[in-house]
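Quick question, first post here. What does this chain look like in 3D?
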Amino acid sequence: MQETDFLFDKTYECPLCYKKFKSKTVRSGRARMIKTDMDLRPVFDGIEPLKYEPVVCCECGYSAMGKNFTAGLLPLYAKYVKENISSVFHYNMHPGETYTYDEAVYRYKMCLANAIVKKGKASEIAYICLKMAWLYRSWGESLNPEAEDYAVRKEACAAKEAENLKKAYDGFINARQTEGFPMCGMDEMTVEYLISVLAIEMEDYEVASRLLGNILVSHSATPRIKDKARDVKEELMKRMKDKA
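> Answer (accepted):
Ran it through. Tokens below.
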């Protein structure tokens, strides 16, 4: 199957300027997930759905993740977006039958800018940064090792992934202290698991150890999340031993 076989053009109506436009979307149930990374990134066969999650209005610049795009905008938030984004927005992407990684990154940056301007929750901003990190990881994996500039581009993707993982980690730490659950569709144990994995990447081993311990003794944690926490704890012990 080609990437285009997974896609269709979905029509949206912008909640800010009310213009109707089309955005490429992955057909429900078409993509097959083959594994999940430790930090919960889903990996699919034949397509990277992450490229198609952000929706950008090409008229006014209002942007959000697909599942949130049509949600109503409070008048004050609409004012913020019009003043800070729409007033300077110029759509400079001309996608073909699929979105490139460059185009996908642009779309995520637009989502992030909108979330910040309309003073979104820390968890919302952190989740966008997390998905941007996943996108850069996927981009790095898609590069041709035989290409002359492979090493440079691979390193650039890794640096951007690390940068966005750090932003996601800081954001979720903040959100855990100030917001309730569920958070970005995740229950408390899933969020604690995710933060523990990010903490290992940040070499914040004390936080990772504490959160993993909370999960393993929790009565509300599912057997699945406890199994994943045990695997992560093994990785934590290995990292700590290597660093000692």
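The longest strand covers residues 7-13.
DSSP finds seven helices and six strands in the chain.
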